[in-house]
TrEMBL record, chains A, B:
It holds the Pfam family OCD_Mu_crystall. GO terms for molecular function: ornithine cyclodeaminase activity. This is Ornithine cyclodeaminase. Keywords: Lyase, NAD.
């Protein structure tokens, strides 16, 4: 938490400062620390003011707002999803977010969240797997080797000790890049020529593809007993990755049912199909994995509390740090009800150098 | 619109730059120009993707997100409302907002909106009065002389030619400040000792009080035939300003009924009580004022399209201007799917001076 300062100033964590914070911390340590915040907020789930994200859909993508509050802090994230963006050199997903003080409504922090979202998504996946994956899991298939893939790999290494990765992507150059980026980080990596090959011997199967349409990345015959499926890519209406038959054989765990029913893999199932809310596994109210042969599925779409946790973590990390800039974001007149007078006094000042 | 620049950079209009933009333009010119944008977007109403604002209520206030899109641009505003904030030297209402490109989902502009909201609220009030107030109105009662009051006064002067103001506030020092701030701006101002006195001879009555509770600023006997009531302060559940009997005698015009039914003066009326959507008056589909004796009421709560209009205006005004800073807000890897690689390349760079 930055030292007390003028009421008009809001700390801003730029992309560059976020990168430096991650690098100074070490990506795996960052993921482990971030995961403790995410897990803590799953445990405090019932405290939160929760709402399914507010989506504005257009032909090529979606822009979403994701607010959440625990009654003391409020956070929201702005995030887009535009699969065609890569053609124009842009990111499919970019994001930024704000953390605020509920008592005053004043913003405490503005942060880039493109990188932070990749980290929180991976941290959340790994926490879910900690509760749901088979004991002693060492091998993960990672299908879809785009922007999210290395973060998933490192989170599963950091939190579960996964050291064997089997990569597959429709685009071999994506697999190659993922492998190169992860070189020297302590993972044994196999590049596979098909999804079928990738899942061979895997205890955990992570799907993180980006096409905005219903696709079948995994078919029923590819899923043996006892695996944990971490389905990350299916996260909006009309965008799924798994064949419906896999869902019917799995115990399904979700973040926030009202959102997941619309956006997750379970949009393929009836609206009353039984699923378990993951937070209840964290609190011990529900069982996670209950047998060796059980197929567990974390149908992850990304929920606002996870972004809340991530911003809360960053805010705590800024204490004693200089990895932020000061933004003159909130009007702060000498007398709070005298907004117009602030304008008049500005007019009376000599022009600044700008 | 700023010149083309790096994909990671988002222009940011600080409080200081917003003040300088308003001062360089002149507040009345700014209000007139802004009003053309607001009016144009009321005319294009049916194009918009609209939603009632998403509110997170707490004991002392509310934090709201207000998104809107016309299919090409997307905007949202973050705004709080905390009446007790003035006790700690803070603003009751602060705000900031973002304008984005729908096709890519990328932000185009981040702007302070505390000042801008005050201006857009006043501009919207004046546009409504242009359609609804009695012809030749010259005198306005302004009840509630807080942060919004001078902006209302100037907007009604700039757009309707109001030159006679009758002020009243429970707190005489607020009235005094308002009068001082408006001195020399071409308005004849009378400070009144009661709301009853303020409304004497007024053609337009503007209420802009800030208490977060149902109050009765205006009672039925105070409202003569033919006046236009511009009710600005009643804008959240449990916060109203007018006695119900006034509503029953008035023709009521609203912004977006699903939001106004919950937040506006009409929360005192049955959910199916007939009201007119103001945009239909702008397009000519519905009649505004239809007789000299009619009492018209603009039950204004502030709608997301007005913030969209304000951000669109600011974005256009930035063309050829240097009244913004550049924020490194969006991660922009050389290769769009290689977010992790961007981190690795950052690690390989020498440390910056920060």
């Amino acid at each position: 938490m930055p030292a007390e300062q003028n009421l008009n100033i809001v700390p801003f964590v730029s992309v560059e400062n976020m990168m430096d914070l991650v690098l100074a911390t070490g990506a795996e340590t960052f993921l482990r620390e971030l995961a403790t915040y995410v897990e803590e907020d799953f445990r405090r789930w019932e405290l939160f003011d929760k709402v399914a994200r507010i989506a504005s859909h257009s032909r090529d993508g979606v822009i979403e707002l994701m607010p959440a509050s625990d009654g003391q802090l409020y956070a929201f994230k702005y995030v887009n999803g535009h699969p065609k963006n890569t053609r124009s050199g842009r990111q499919t997903v970019t994001a930024f977010g704000v953390l605020s003080d509920v008592d005053s409504g004043y913003p405490l922090l503005l942060s880039e969240m493109t990188i932070l979202t990749a980290l929180r998504t991976a941290a959340t996946s790994a926490i879910a797997a900690k509760y749901l994956a088979p004991k002693g899991a060492k091998t993960m298939a990672l299908i879809g080797n785009g922007a999210q893939s290395e973060f998933q790999a490192l989170a599963f290494k950091a939190l579960l000790g996964i050291d064997n990765l089997r990569l597959y992507d429709l685009d071999p150059s994506a697999t190659e890049r993922c492998r190169n980026n992860l070189a020297g980080l302590g993972l044994t990596i196999t590049a596979c020529r098909s999804a079928e090959e990738a899942v061979e011997g895997a205890h955990i199967i992570t799907t993180a593809t980006a096409d905005k349409r219903n696709a079948t990345i995994l078919t029923d015959n590819m899923i043996g007993p006892g695996v944990h499926i971490n389905a990350v890519g299916g996260d909006s209406p009309g965008k799924t990755e798994l064949h419906r038959d896999i869902l019917l054989r799995s115990s399904i765990f979700v973040e926030y049912p009202p959102q997941t029913r619309v956006e997750g893999e379970i949009q393929q199932l009836p609206a009353d199909y039984p699923v378990t809310e993951f937070w209840q596994v964290v609190t011990g109210q529900k069982t996670g994995r209950d047998s060796d042969g059980q197929i567990t599925l974390f149908d992850s779409v990304g929920f606002a509390t996870e972004d809340f946790s991530a911003l809360r973590y960053i805010y705590d990390r800024l204490r004693g740090s200089n990895r932020f800039e000061n933004l003159d974001l909130v009007a702060d007149p000498d007398e709070p009800r005298d907004l117009f007078g602030m304008l008049l006094r500005r007019a009376a000042q000599p022009a600044t150098s700008k």
